[in-house]
Amino acid sequence: MKILIADDSRVMRQIVTRTLRQAGFGDHDLVEAADGQEAVDKTVAEKPDLVISDWNMPELTGIEVLRKLRASGNEVKFGFVTSESTPEMQQAAEAAGAAFFIVKPFTAERFDEVFSPILG
């Protein structure tokens, strides 16, 4: 499976990648995007099976990326790994079709719990 990691922080993308490996998902093909527009473009071009997105990014926020993809008919599994978490944000994510919402800091155990049903 192919996983797109969208976060404007290169360090955070590396931490997500490392945590995916620690959780046992290291054999998947990983693609990175450094902002929201790149996340949309790479989701269309690379056709990942899963998008793991930050909430706050330049160009388009994570929720804007999700809404843009859904508006174009793209039903990729999409969720958030973010440091901000309010009930309103979680409701907006769920209403837009997000599959998960993980709050930073996260653990390999949390990734395993969330991604095992999605990635098998």
Automatic annotation (TrEMBL):
Name used for this protein in its record: Two-component system chemotaxis response regulator CheY
Modified positions (4-aspartylphosphate) in chain numbering: 54
Keyword line: Phosphoprotein
InterPro entries to which the protein is assigned, alphabetical: CheY-like_superfamily (IPR011006), Sig_transdc_resp-reg_receiver (IPR001789), ST_Response_Regulator (IPR052048)
GO process terms (BP): phosphorelay signal transduction system
Organism: Actinoplanes digitatis
Domain Response regulatory: start-end pairs: 2-119
Record carries keyword Phosphoprotein: yes
